[in-house]
Design goal:
Order of helices and strands: EEEEEEEEEEE
Strand content: over 45%
Oligomer: single chain
Number of helices: 0
Helix content: under 10%
Shape: globular
Radius of gyration: 13 Å
Number of strands: 11
Distance between the termini: 40 Å
């Protein structure tokens, strides 16, 4: 069973930065792609960013220019560097890993942007 563990969340002031990390229990080479999603209170879970096995990246409009997704194959991690954070970025952030016939989710890490 694949396990994904997110870390790096916390409380940050508006305009600040955070780096989230997702560590997989197996080689991330095994996944077709890995994503970050987020879910704010009272809202549906929404897609934030994707990185494919080949290293291609894509971003939701909400994070373009502020968020950067990256991976470290040796450490089996996928990171989300977030900058210029806004109160609207407050949410639980989830890591997702996709294989051909199955998708895996982490437990999430809370990000709160507040002064």
């Amino acid at each position: 069973q694949v396990q994904l563990v997110e870390s790096g969340g916390g409380l940050v002031q508006p305009g600040g930065s955070l780096r989230l990390s997702c560590t997989a229990s197996e080689s991330i080479f095994n996944f077709n792609a890995m994503d970050w999603y987020r879910q704010a209170p009272g809202k549906q879970r929404e897609w934030v960013a994707t990185i494919t096995s080949g290293g291609s990246t894509s971003y939701a409009d909400s994070g373009k220019g502020r968020f950067t997704i990256s991976k470290d194959n040796a450490k089996n991690t996928v990171d989300l560097q977030m900058s210029s954070l806004k109160p609207d970025d407050t949410a639980v952030y989830y890591c997702n890993a996709r294989k051909t016939f199955r998708t895996y989710w982490g437990q999430g890490t809370q990000v709160t942007v507040s002064s």
